[in-house]
Amino acid sequence: MAKFVFSMESMLRLKTRIEEQKEQEFAKALKKLYEEQEVLQKMNVDKEFAIKKLKGDIGIKITPIEFGRLNRYIEFMKEKMEIQKTVIIKAEKFVEEKRLNLIEATKERKMLDKLKERKFEEYIDEEKKKEQKVVDEIVSYKYSEA
């Protein structure tokens, strides 16, 4: 039995490497998105703490100067949070782009995998036919001798 050789094996290996690269890019983009979301969450925690401090919920009395400073800080944090939300939206779009790229690369690799499977099945069928032909010839030869 001859060894099975897939004529597009090098293309399949290339598509597999491309898919792995796209997976890494997607994972990187997703990690970046999570980091940006974390930054927003920390900003929100800081803002909420300042609001509690301003309202006196923490039990600390504040001076008018401190009151003004906290007010400005809260407004500053609101502005920063809006900017951060825009950054997150861009990161989400980037993640979606990388996800679509990964899906496309996976489709291409799977298509070649299926082709390889079909070619292998054809190869097995051919080898069985050859083997059956040899068996038939042997049986025919033995039958003709008898």
Can you describe what's shown?
The protein is mainly α and about 150 residues long. The protein has a domain at about 35-130. The chain has helices at about 10-55, 65-145. α1 packs antiparallel against α2 (about 65-145). The two termini are about 30 Å apart. The model has no long low-confidence stretch (mean pLDDT about 95).
User: Structural class per helix/strand content?
Assistant: mainly alpha
Tally the beta strands. 0
Whole-angstrom Rg: 33 Å
Overall shape: rod-shaped
Helix count, DSSP H or I runs of 4 or more residues = 2
Strand content: under 5%
Residue runs with pLDDT of under 50 for 5 or more positions: none
Compressed to H and E, one letter per element, the order equals HH
Mean pLDDT rating? 93
Largest sheet: none
Percent helix, as a range, is over 70%
Distance between the termini: 30 Å
Q: How is this fold's topology laid out?
A:
Elements: H1 9-55, H2 64-145
Helix pairs in contact: 1-2
Question: Which keywords apply here?
Answer:
single chain, 146 residues, mainly alpha, 0% strand, rod-shaped
Summary, kept brief:
The chain is an all-alpha fold and 146 residues long.
